[in-house]
Design brief:
Elements lengths: L10 E5 L5 E6 L6 E8 L13 H8 L11 H8 L8 E5 L4 E8 L3 H16 L5 H17 L3 H13 L14 H6 L2 H11 L5 E7 L3 H12 L20 E9 L5 E9 L7 H24 L9 E10 L2 E10 L4 H18 L3 H20 L6 H14 L6 H11 L5 H13 L2 E9 L9 H13 L24 E7 L4 E6 L4 E6 L7 E8 L10 H5 L1 H8 L6 H7 L5 E7 L3 E8 L4 H13 L5 H15 L6 H13 L19 H11 L7 E6 L3 H12 L22 E7 L6 E10 L4 H25 L6 E8 L5 E10 L4 H18 L3 H18 L3 H14 L3 H5 L9 H11 L5 E7 L5
Parallel strand pairs: 2-6, 7-11, 14-18, 19-23
Antiparallel strand pairs: 1-2, 3-5, 3-6, 4-5, 8-10, 8-11, 9-10, 12-13, 13-14, 15-17, 15-18, 16-17, 20-22, 20-23, 21-22
């Protein structure tokens, strides 16, 4: 057990003469892509008082000018080769590190070469032009502003307790706005000079490339950076504090009440086989405790809406074992006692052999699936592992080792070992109790004297051993009479086989080799909650949640989870406005179980009154203070305005929960799934078409079918005509949120939808350059297209940004001015080319996804469109600057939009 953990032989690790470390691995998923990281072992913890926030601002400045790329040139280049700012180009700053991330195409040597030049520039050639630094101050302050709210205010109260005596209490990465407004240029230059050194850096490259070539690039680019001395990279600590401390915070706008018990420990290394085995034992113990907490949450009057146990790094020098619960507003003490009772029950009486057996089955199945798909793992997964290897010496033994070690070690783990972990978790003498509470005259915020005695009370209480019950019978008591395939066709253009079954079901099947151990299922049928009576609307909209909470056939939700131990399968029903259906998937070897679950959810939903009461309690806890949330007030106003205050658009409240009737909800659910005649199914993934035929005929062909009028009903929910502008005043923070939604009719064709997507990308780029880069008024701008086919072809194009309240109208006016300029002058050819390249590059990776294909094929079944057109890049053919300008004139109609602005409430 003292044998050191191996290092995955697939990764090449080296160090240059100047001290820079590199990790390089060839990996083919996604194809023609690479994940690149520049890792700097320096974050906000190293800032001096006058530098607070500058580690993060420096990260921003990396995108605002380097030796080889002027201010906007870097982002413009990356977007021109299809790397979207955000998904493919990003960075983050934390307490202890700064990490820059690129996902690049590797089918162009020029792009690869330029990407490594960018990484090198970030490492030692950020220009830090004073004018650009001053401009970026405002952007970072707006990012700080965007993060403010109840959670941030409560964190301000809790951090000094959690990190007492440590610099971590004073160095949040977002920084201090007063410092950000006034720091001298020298301060940021000094941080860059002191900490961006080769000995504190690593380059990570994982992807579809030749490793030798990439290593050569790293040596050529980063080997020329001179080694230099600098301040010592201090490893700051969180001092040990014996006993229990309380970090109790309340806020009028708190969205939920929460209690967390943090047992603080020094991180335990995972460096040997024995360490690895210990981590497996800890994982099994936590998994079983979480299963018990989930079962407690299913009671009629549960003490918490949700609870979980977890172990992980709190900050780099300190780990925490956490017991967390979301509780009713006045339920902190009760929730804490319930969570502690379950932890004490496990510590005192241990777990049962049947619980351990299920946990082992699930653990081993997860390792097996990883191993089966070891050649299809995404490069980003390995890149993240190597980043942590450099920063924290995290283990990287590889998937082969993990599978083999799991097979060898897990069967031998004994019940007394997992029981010992449960006892150790309660024995930690450094503990912090975190409380998030609603500040209201109707709520009593707990104090330490309310919570402290709970530990002794639980320790002294008479706690019975856990009784682990389960149902030992087949999922389906009696298999249905199978149907048959009555019609079959091939769609060679997309590799799809289509079947029509004797009960009317249509199913499209697309075998793929994207993953060896994945199958994705989707299904849809017309109708949805549009067919419910208005008085039953809320019952209809929560019907699937109630069925999933209650279980199917002879199995409650908990019994079903136990019955599925060791199986990689999941499926869930859904009911939307105009459709109902299924979404699920799993491993090819569990396909029959997947189809059985579909059959059960369609034919045997349970009406479980205990589960219903648990659902109501959980929803009440979640919704209790929602009305005080500025974000909720804003989103509700936006949704209601877009629906012209249709009664079915009303938000769910604690009071409206009384309108839900379990019987009517389940009856409506049964009606929606009573007939399979008009259901369309899609199956995509690793399967053989002929091998699944008997399963499809048995479980889908065996579904009942009834001829009936089952189409959706037009409820008249539609956006308002003309211009509607509203201001919502809510909240106390000096922050604003603005959304403008253009909407109207559209010709619902694949090429027109593609044009709208390109238009949205062009508009987002232009607004980012204007509102963020030129005006420094916002941290981010989003532009999102949307479209629907029914009841008529319609589109939306939503523009959103946050800002200081005093600049909200200025920036909103800038949005309309920039849109008008686009309509008059048209976009540049370069802007359109970048948007097209981004769309096509995104499509390349999407086409390697089973879930993407399932969604596209199901959409084609619903619309009757040719899936060859809806899934092919050719739908972007012919999109140029003139077409985008024409689309802007049609879709960005200044006489047809909804605008909602959130401002602080008067007097705040």
């Amino acid at each position: 057990m003292d044998t050191p953990l191996p290092v995955d032989p697939a990764v090449r690790i080296g160090q240059l003469d100047n001290g820079l470390t590199f990790y390089v691995r060839e990996n083919s998923r996604p194809a023609s892509r690479a994940e690149l990281r520049l890792v700097v072992d320096a974050g906000s913890i190293l800032e001096t008082p006058e530098q607070r926030g500058l580690a993060h601002l420096l990260e921003h400045m990396a995108f605002n000018g380097t030796a080889n790329f002027e201010k906007q040139e870097l982002v413009d280049y990356l977007e021109s080769v299809g790397m979207a700012f955000g998904p493919s180009v990003n960075a983050y700053t934390s307490f202890d590190e700064t990490v820059y991330m690129l996902q690049i195409p590797t089918d162009s040597a020029e792009i690869v070469a330029t990407a490594f030049q960018i990484l090198e520039d970030w490492a030692h050639q950020i220009t830090l032009d004073p004018a650009e630094v001053d401009q970026e101050r405002g952007v970072v302050i707006e990012e700080w502003r965007l993060g403010r709210g109840a959670a941030a205010r409560m964190s301000d109260q809790q951090l000094p307790v959690m990190f007492e005596g440590s610099r971590y209490a004073e160095r949040l990465p977002i920084g201090d706005p007063e410092v950000l407004e006034s720091f001298p240029q020298e301060a940021i230059e000094r941080f860059y000079r002191d900490w961006y050194r080769p000995d504190l850096m690593a380059v990570v490259a994982v992807g579809d490339f030749d490793a030798d070539e990439v290593v050569d690039r790293i040596r050529n680019h980063f080997g020329r950076i001179e080694a230099r001395s600098g301040p010592e990279r201090t490893a700051f600590t969180v001092p040990d504090r014996e006993g229990t401390r309380y970090a109790i915070a309340s806020d009028p706008e708190a969205s939920a009440s929460r209690i967390a018990l943090l047992s603080l420990q020094d991180p335990q290394p995972v460096a040997t086989v024995g360490d690895y085995r210990r981590s497996l034992v800890e994982g099994l113990s936590n998994r079983m405790l979480n299963d018990r907490l989930a079962e407690r949450a299913q009671q009629a009057d549960p003490p918490f809406a949700f609870a979980a146990a977890a172990r992980g790094r709190f900050v780099r020098p300190k780990s925490a074992y956490q017991l967390v619960a979301v509780v009713p507003e006045d339920g902190h003490a009760r929730g804490m006692e319930a969570v502690l009772t379950e932890a004490e029950r496990a510590a005192r009486h241990g777990f049962t052999e049947t619980e351990l057996e299920r946990a082992k089955l699930d653990l081993l199945r997860g390792l097996e699936r990883d191993y089966t798909d070891r050649e299809n793992q995404p490069s980003a997964r390995f890149a993240a592992e190597y980043v942590q290897r450099f920063l924290t010496d995290g283990p990287i033994p590889g998937i082969d080792f993990a599978f083999g070690a799991g097979q060898a070690l897990v069967p031998g783990i004994q019940i007394d070992e997992v029981d010992a972990v449960a006892r150790e978790n309660l024995a930690v003498e450094q503990r912090v109790i975190l409380v998030d509470a609603v500040e209201s005259p109707d709520v009593t915020v707990p104090v330490p004297d309310d919570l402290g005695p709970i530990f002794d009370r639980v320790a002294a209480s008479d706690i019975e051993p856990w009784v682990d019950s389960s149902i030992d019978q087949p999922l389906v008591a009696e298999a249905p009479q199978p149907g048959s395939v009555v019609a079959e066709e091939r769609m060679s253009g997309v590799g799809v086989t289509t079947w029509e079954l004797s009960n009317g079901i249509r199913i499209w099947l697309k075998p793929t080799d994207f993953k060896e151990d994945e199958v994705v299922l989707r299904a849809t049928s017309p109708g949805g909650w549009s067919r419910s009576a208005e008085d039953d609307h809320l019952s209809a909209t929560v019907a699937t949640a109630l069925v999933q909470q209650g279980g199917v056939g002879a199995f409650s939700r908990i019994d079903l989870q136990k019955a599925l131990a060791g199986k990689a399968v999941a499926v869930g029903p859904s009911i939307g406005q105009r459709t109902e259906g299924f979404s699920g998937g799993g491993s090819p070897e569990d396909l029959e179980t997947l189809f059985q679950l579909v059959y059960l959810y369609a034919t045997a939903p349970r009406e479980d009154t205990v589960a219903f009461e648990a659902f109501r309690s959980q929803m009440s806890a979640v919704l209790a203070n929602r009305g005080a949330s500025p974000a909720a007030a804003f989103s509700d106003t936006l949704s209601l305005t877009l629906a012209q205050y249709h009664p079915r658009a009303d938000p769910v409240t604690v009071a409206s929960l009384d309108e839900i009737d379990l019987g009517r909800a389940v009856d409506f659910y049964r009606d929606r799934f009573a007939s399979a005649e008009d259901f369309d199914f899609v199956l995509v993934g690793a399967f053989d078409v002929e091998a699944v035929r008997p399963l499809v005929e048995q479980w889908l062909g065996g579904l009942p079918a009834v001829a009936r009028d089952d189409d959706w009903v037009d409820l008249g929910i539609a956006p308002p005509p003309g211009v509607v502008e509203k201001v919502v005043r809510a909240g106390v923070e000096p922050q604003s949120r603005t959304v403008v939604i253009f909407h109207g009719p559209m010709d619902y064709r694949p090429d027109e939808r593609a044009t709208l997507r390109v238009l949205a990308s062009v508009v987002e780029t232009r607004l980012r350059e204007e509102l963020r880069e030129s005006l420094g008024g916002t941290y981010s701008v989003s532009v999102s297209p949307g479209y629907q086919r029914l009841p008529e072809g319609r589109y939306t194009l939503q523009v959103g940004f946050g800002s200081h309240p005093e600049r909200a109208e200025e920036l909103r006016a800038a949005v309309f001015a920039e849109i008008e300029r686009l309509k008059v002058e048209g976009p540049s050819d370069e802007d359109v080319a970048s948007a097209l390249e981004g769309a096509l590059r995104s499509l390349e990776t999407s086409r390697e996804s089973n879930a993407w294909w399932a969604t596209q094929l199901l959409g084609a079944m619903e619309t009757g469109e040719d899936p060859t057109l809806t899934t092919a890049p050719e739908r972007y053919d012919g999109i140029d600057a003139a077409r985008v300008q024409e689309a802007a004139r049609r879709y960005l109609d200044g006489d047809q939009y909804v605008s909602v602005v959130l401002l602080p409430r008067a007097g705040a």
